[in-house]
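User: I want to check something. If I give you two sequences, will you return the structure for each one separately, not as a complex?

Assistant: Yes, each is folded on its own. Here is the first sequence with its structure:
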Amino acid sequence: MSIQTHFDKFNKKIYLTSHSDGYKKAKEKDKSIFEEIKSAFKDAGYPVIDTFMQGSFAVNTAINSLDGDFDIDRAVVIDAENAPEDPVAPKKIIKDVLERRNFKDPRIKKPCVTADYKSINLHIDYTVYKKETSFFGGDTYYLAIGKNGSSDKHKEWSESDQKGLIEWIDSADDFAFGATEKRKQLKRLIRYFKRWRDVNFSGEVRKKVFSIGLTVMVKEQYSPNTLSANVDDDLKALKDTVDSILDDGYISAPFGTDDYRVSVQLPKIPNRDIFQHKVEGGHADGSDLNVGTQLRNKLIKLQENLQKAIDETDEVKQCEILNKLFGDDFEVPKKEKQPSSKVASSIKVAGAAPLSTAGASGTSQGA
């Protein structure tokens, strides 16, 4: 059995789709809640004209959570002509709906409305966009930014190309031969990175190693052979991608310090730094030093251990290395028991007699 077979099994275990059994209740809740939001928005005078999934489900890179939680990230789109001047107003309506629907402590955050359901493991984020269609037919989306109590200068409809981001992640245009299979491998690598993050980081740092940040780095650094359609080596592809991430300048040490920040730009509007962190009076580019330093150190350790797995010739030992990196869903096969020298000797002796007898009686040994 090849190491790729074990990666395929691992991917199957962590891969979460909208059709996964455990996701059924979450989908039912989401559908019901969205219908209520549509009705409330219509009553408020800005009917919903579109909706789409965001995040991991939109690009088919979702993984099963280690704690059993399910995340839903949905965009709610209204027409710019009907949108209220205050971008927080529609978010208040969503908050009211979630409060009525048994969510605990729904909160209006700067980019979204977020809440956790009380009786099932469901976390939900709703973002609101207004869509403006130009005379020439192009669509521009603006994200509702602001929280309860935000001053006017901290509230705005901010241009955001979320659909463009989804299309960029999902695109296989740069992959030439075997584009479809290469896109599948890219999605697998993103899932592996997410599970590695979940297993190797803890607490607040894990929350700040954002999935979209990992996704953008992997997408930008994944570099399959353009002259070949062969993509059957996830281990090498993963190691090559880690090498490129560490070499490409995402992580750097500010002048005068031995600690590090990670900085990754969104490839689409608003082109902000994904890892920008809060400071007094606003945000600063790059992560805080703790997040950047831990990410660098753990990526170097990941790089070293992936190389060990590549160099290892024993399949079980390879899986043991990868199990420590990715957790118990990367299963280690049981070692085959070797017969003792005494038993092996008796098997050898026992096997020799029939051959000798067969040859003496003239029976064909090729039968």
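And separately, the second sequence with its own structure:
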Amino acid sequence: MKTANPLALVAGAGAGLGQSLLSRFQAGDMTAVGLGRSRPENPVGTFHELDLSDLEAVGPTIADLIATYGPPKIVVHNTAERVIAPFPETTLKDYQRTWTSMVQSLVVLGQCVLQPMVRGGGGTLIVSGATASLRGGPRFSAFASAKFALRGLTQSLAREYQPAGVHVAHVIVDGIIDTPRSRDLHSLDPAKMIKPGEIAEAYWQLAHQPQSTWTHELDLRPASEGF
């Protein structure tokens, strides 16, 4: 049975950007639901803890949500598995792990939501990319190869589903997202970091573009970031 508030799903709804996205969607009068392999402290909205690469886990969960709330109007794929190591020390399992976390999880998510979104009259699927989606740096071979694949998959989904009314977009988040963890890891002035709430606002605006001006790829970076 549908509720008055449309459904917004965030796959990879951890602390930082994932929770900021859910907060923005909830503030926009949407039913905010997070999916992820580990539950953040005090999650926004409803959170389902599961393996996003496992169709047998994700499929029934999303089917139940659609039965309750109707097809989602906004879906965000926000998973990441960062492996940073010299190439000789990067194992085959590292490559498989990054691909499974980022690419396979989008395949699973897309198969669960895209056809229902078409039948429900459309919506928006946004995929979170990174600098590594465009440029493979040293020691980032596993991460960059998966991010490149994720970008290509997103392009294919856009060309297949946009004519059916589903806006598919890829966002390159070029910079360090300002979270307590990133402040501990990086010796960087927080003024030069990307604010997760401001990324979430950009995603919200992207999801509400008119059909005559859909953006497929959006770059977000601080003014101080070189590119």
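Because they were folded independently, the notes below concern the second chain alone. The radius of gyration is 17 Å. The beta strands are 7-11, 31-36, 46-49, 74-77, 123-130, 166-173, 217-220.
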